[in-house]
Structure prediction request, 156 residues.
Amino acid sequence: MLGLFIYKGGFSLLKMDILTHFNDEFTRPLEPIISYFNNDTHIHKNPEVVKAVATYNLALLLLDNEPDIKDMENHVLYGDLYLSEFYITLAKYEAYDTLTDVLDISKEIINLKSLYQKHNDLEKTEKTFIHFGPILYLRDQSFIDDKIDQVLELIM
Prediction:
């Protein structure tokens, strides 16, 4: 399971069994991404910012899934926790350009999702962007190496 480990100074994607409220069928496919970000050799700069953006992206993916009615409250609360940690970490490291860029990407994703629901004919690159736009931003801005492409290809 995807987990968030909080420690003094920030947070990190570390343990995969802490947040058991998310259904395995939703989180298991994301394990290669978590492994990628847990390997610091892939991160070229600002590791806390990188992990905050990656967590934000994973939160968006998990929140796209509709939980069982009995899990709805936890689903929303933990989604809020992930998103709050994203904002807190980027503010702490004064990564306001990254914050603005990622929020702009999120707006683009919403627009593409809307188009996809209407037409269901987006290209593979657009579908990848819909799911992993913030992570692709990290790659494009040289925060992480391009080996993420192989991980995303595996998941897609």
